[in-house]
Amino acid sequence: MLVGVTACGGGGGSDKASGDDAKASGTPSASASPSPTKPAGPPMLLDTITPQTGTTVGVAMPISVIFTNPVAAKAKATVEKHMKVSTSQPVVGAWHWMGDRRADWRPKTYWPSGTKVRIDADMTGVSNGNGRYGVHGYTHTFTIGDDVRADVSVTGHTMKVTRNGQAVRTLSINAGSAQYPTWDGTMAVIDKQEKVHMTSCSVGISCDKGSPNFYDLTLPWDVHLTQSGTYVHYSTGDPNPGSGSARGSHGCVHLSLSDAKWFYGQVKQGDPVTITGSPRGKAPADNGYADFNLGWDQWLTGSASGEETSTAL
């Protein structure tokens, strides 16, 4: 699938959650109205809930809820309490607000493989603190699949892939150059595409065709790590990555063509890719799904209701 123009590296900012996020189920009808116990007002709606219903995701995948309008600080605890997380085995976790429109729920540690998860966001009559009230509920169910992890060493030029604790393969890689370093830290896979059109101009690297940093390429086997443009993929400009080539990228992680195709076939949304040895620092938690770049104490500072154990499913 060929998707919109994007690119490696560029910009330290972080955008909203992936455009492929599941649309919240249950579009309200024109006649829907707030609870009669609440004053009339415009509806509070959810823009997206991720993961999509029926999907199987990785052990680092958060539940990510995005509201169409800002939620006031005074309303966040109530809103959190109306977003119930149920699981087939007990999981300790918490909500964390990424600003005033996005709330993520993640476990304290990675999800156990095989866990069935359900999120019930019963927003009926719930206020966002800014004059809006929920008009209906939303439900998503998903499953945690195999524990697939990729550990990338920037200085060692390697990526070690494990599945359920067992080593699978070690691949040769190149990461970002000194000028365009790769993000460090753990990033859960946002999505993947067989082909992505990447341009240097789209991320502010260079729009000058005469520049050595200019590129305008459609490249295969792309695993998406950050909204600011980090991918694991094959690059025609770096066909044989590894310590021998010592060729830096514009922030992406490069694999050979055969390795990129193999890795693409191994990973799914929510699988953690952990990068170490880069001078850039950790990706912000809301730059895609880098939630585990925050320690648990840091995570709880962004929660209005605190640590909780999931309800039995």
What attributes characterize this protein structure?
6-stranded antiparallel sheet; 5-stranded mixed sheet; 313 residues; disordered N terminus
Q: Whole-Å distance between the termini? A: 36 Å
Number of strands: 23
Question: C-alpha Rg, in Å?
Answer: 20 Å
Structural class by sheet pairing and helices? mainly beta
Count of helix runs:
3
**What share of the residues lie within helices?**
under 10%
- Spatial order of the strands forming the largest sheet: 2-4-6-9-8-22
SSE pattern? EEEEEEHEEEEEEEEEEEEEEHEHEE
Strand content: 35-45%
Q: What do the pLDDT scores average to?
A: 87
Outline type: globular
Low-pLDDT runs:
1-5, 10-35
The major sheet is characterized as:
6 strands, antiparallel
